[in-house]
């Protein structure tokens, strides 16, 4: 009796999850499906990152920081599920200027507005004034600025304030607080360059160039430049939401229309339906009653996967759907191993209940090893691949884990329950393939 109750409880649990998927997908819940740019339509912006002044050993850290601040920036404007990825343009020396940043903004149709959103993020730089050099065509002295390595990458907070007080009229200034690494760098710069001017550039424009009077510890600085109050407030806000650690230049845009995205989504759903139908036909036709159990488990597998897509959440792309379709076939792989062992046990005259237990025990090592190797592959793809490959690898890894649980736990519950029914246990033809 308890085996039957376990099977009924499991069916009820899967049914509840199915209702939850429908509730969220219909827009009534708080966890709808997230679609990527290729399925939902939107805008992709491509930028070239200028790393010419970044030390070679710090390039990767600078690019990770660039990705982080761009993500904060686009999230600020409410773009649904933005994707910001950094990649090398080709396999060359790491210090070559070939780094690219791609920003995907699903659901955004106004390219100019998208460019404006990204372009509002300022570039903050600190440079030492190195003196004058007659390098212009007319022989006019030209100021030389020496990079210090201190940029907005090290910024922790920017705050609007006022200077002057009783000594004179107050004017807006921007107080800066650097993180621990930036504070140490700022201290070294001021300690080693007392008496020199430290120029502050915002988006390449000189804001102020005060003289360093003494070493400054604690990571505190300020920017003054005859700002209007609103201007200073906006600069502080933009710096807080992400000062770019390296300059970027827009090099390309791509717009995916909503219609094209819907067509891609519809094609993916059709492919999924066809794959599911073929798997169901084969399992029922070849394995009879166990095959029907596998179909039930497959439906449960699909429901659990959809719940994970909604709650993790997984941003679904065409590559992700491809991974889901592939994992659909793998979801029955464990069932096939178990059912083949079950046929062998029944062929040796074992009682049905004992044959079921032995089948799962004998199939486990093969199921475990096959799925672990697939997980290793998915891990490598996720670690080394681009964002498209990452989506595929993530869905594949989730599918492997869920399918293993579906077959080895859910399948065992249902087969035990069916084997305990005398009318079914006596009809061995329901448990073996045709002609076997």
Overview of this protein structure:
This protein has 12 helices and 13 strands. The protein folds into 3 domains: 2-36 and 257-431, Multidrug efflux transporter AcrB transmembrane fold, CATH 1.20.1640.10; 42-120 and 245-255, Alpha-Beta Plaits (2-Layer Sandwich), CATH 3.30.70.3400; 122-240, 2-Layer Sandwich (Gyrase A, domain 2). It is elongated, with a radius of gyration of 31 Å. A hairpin with a 2-residue loop joins β9 (198-202) and β10. With 436 residues, the chain is an alpha+beta fold. It has helices at residues 2-25, 37-40, 59-76, 111-119, 180-192, 229-240, 258-311, 318-331, 333-347, 352-384, 387-419, 422-425; strands at 34-35, 42-49, 83-88, 99-106, 124-133, 142-151, 155-163, 171-178, 198-202, 205-208, 220-224, 248-256, 315-316.
Overall body shape: elongated
Largest sheet: 4 strands, antiparallel
User: What is the tally of helical segments?
Assistant: 12
Number of strands: 13
Tally of separate domains? 3
Given helix and strand content, the structural type is alpha+beta
Task: Give the SSE order as H and E letters.
Answer: HEHEHEEHEEEEHEEEHEHEHHHHH
Strand arrangement across the biggest beta sheet: 3-4-2-12
How much of the sequence lies in strands comes to 15-25%
Calculate the mean pLDDT score and round it.
Answer: 79
Rounded Rg: 31 Å
Q: What is the CATH fold-level name of the largest domain?
A: Multidrug efflux transporter AcrB transmembrane fold
Key terms:
alpha+beta, Alpha-Beta Plaits, elongated, 436 residues, Gyrase A, domain 2, four-stranded antiparallel beta sheet, 3 domains, Multidrug efflux transporter AcrB transmembrane fold
């Amino acid at each position: 009796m308890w085996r039957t109750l376990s099977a009924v409880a499991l069916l009820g649990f899967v049914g509840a999850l199915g209702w939850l998927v429908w509730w969220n997908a219909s827009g009534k819940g708080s966890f709808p499906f997230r679609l990527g740019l290729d399925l939902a339509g939107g805008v992709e912006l491509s930028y070239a990152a200028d790393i010419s002044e970044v030390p070679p050993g710090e390039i990767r850290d600078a690019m990770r920081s660039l990705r982080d601040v761009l993500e904060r920036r686009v999230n600020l404007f409410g773009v649904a599920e933005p994707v910001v990825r950094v990649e090398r343009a080709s396999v060359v020396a790491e210090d070559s200027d070939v780094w690219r940043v791609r920003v995907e903004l699903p659901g955004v149709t106004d390219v100019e507005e998208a460019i404006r959103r990204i372009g509002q993020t300022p570039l903050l730089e600190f440079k030492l004034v190195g003196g004058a050099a007659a390098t212009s065509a007319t022989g006019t002295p030209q100021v030389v600025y020496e990079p210090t390595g201190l940029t907005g990458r090290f910024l922790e907070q920017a705050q609007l304030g006022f200077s002057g007080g009783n000594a004179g009229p107050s004017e807006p200034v921007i107080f800066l607080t650097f993180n621990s690494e930036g504070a140490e760098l700022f201290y070294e710069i001021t300690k080693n360059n007392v008496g020199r001017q430290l120029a502050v550039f915002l988006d390449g424009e000189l804001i102020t160039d005060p003289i360093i009077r003494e070493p400054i510890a604690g990571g505190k600085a300020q920017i003054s430049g005859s700002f209007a109050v609103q201007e200073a407030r906006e600069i502080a806000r933009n710096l807080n939401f992400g000062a770019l650690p390296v300059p970027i230049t827009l090099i390309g845009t791509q717009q995916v229309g909503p219609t094209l995205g819907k067509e891609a989504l519809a094609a993916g759903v059709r492919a999924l339906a066809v794959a599911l139908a073929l798997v169901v036909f084969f399992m029922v036709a070849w394995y009879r009653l166990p095959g029907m159990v596998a179909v039930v488990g497959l439906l449960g597998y699909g429901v659990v996967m959809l719940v994970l897509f909604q709650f993790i959440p997984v941003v679904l792309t065409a590559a992700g759907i491809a991974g889901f379709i592939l994992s659909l076939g793998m979801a029955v792989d464990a069932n096939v191993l178990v059912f083949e062992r079950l046929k062998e046990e029944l062929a040796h005259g074992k009682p049905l209940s004992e044959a079921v237990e032995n089948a799962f025990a004998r199939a486990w090592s093969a199921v475990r090893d096959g799925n672990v190797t697939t997980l290793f592959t998915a891990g490598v793809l996720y670690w080394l691949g681009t964002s498209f490959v990452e989506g595929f690898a993530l869905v594949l890894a989730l599918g492997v884990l869920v399918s293993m649980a579906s077959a080895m736990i859910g399948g065992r519950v249902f087969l035990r329950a069916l084997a305990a029914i005398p009318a079914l246990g006596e009809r061995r033809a329901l448990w073996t393939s045709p002609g076997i």
